[in-house]
Amino acid sequence: VAKSLKNHLNLVSIGNICRSPIAEAVFRKLVTEEKLEHKWRTDSAAVSDWNVGRSPDSRALSCLRNHGIETAHKARQITKEDFQTFDHILCMDESNLRDLNRKSNQVKDCKAKIELLGTYDPQKQLIIEDPYYGNEKDFETVYEQCLRCCKAFLEKYH
């Protein structure tokens, strides 16, 4: 099997309608701005199956639009194949990390490096809190964290 020329990044949260689609859209925009689309395959997924097929939260979409970013993402649950095809699976909090590590242990040839997206935050904010029960300001905080982390991650792996 030929090694893919692309790096594969999957961003994961509990439901794939708030944090992870924001992170995915932010990373895509950075990759596009750096003219690196040909080098990256980017996706996002959920640990749970609660929102499969749903669009991102309207507040997440509104936040992204405020920053000039559109997304047509539909929520999906992470699969065994994700652990075999993605180089990096970055998640938002310790609960996601525990769930992903548990799931990855059931996959024979897991190649994904599983980490917290916040590991890359220059401001050292390790956890990206779920804004679902919050307000627009909380979504903006998620956006800013994702932007910092994604920039630092891209710099490291570009």
UniProtKB/TrEMBL annotation:
It is found in: Cytoplasm. Its EC number is 3.1.3.2, 3.1.3.48. GO terms for cellular component: cytoplasm. Pfam families: LMWPc (PF01451). It catalyses: a phosphate monoester + H2O = an alcohol + phosphate; O-phospho-L-tyrosyl-[protein] + H2O = L-tyrosyl-[protein] + phosphate. The keyword Cytoplasm applies. The active site is at 19, 130 (proton donor). GO terms for molecular function: acid phosphatase activity; non-membrane spanning protein tyrosine phosphatase activity. Residues 7-156 form the Phosphotyrosine protein phosphatase I domain. Keywords: Cytoplasm, Hydrolase, Protein phosphatase. It is an enzyme of class 3 (hydrolase). The keyword Cell membrane does not apply. Acts on tyrosine phosphorylated proteins, low-MW aryl phosphates and natural and synthetic acyl phosphates. Belongs to the low molecular weight phosphotyrosine protein phosphatase family. This is Low molecular weight phosphotyrosine protein phosphatase. The gene is Acp1.
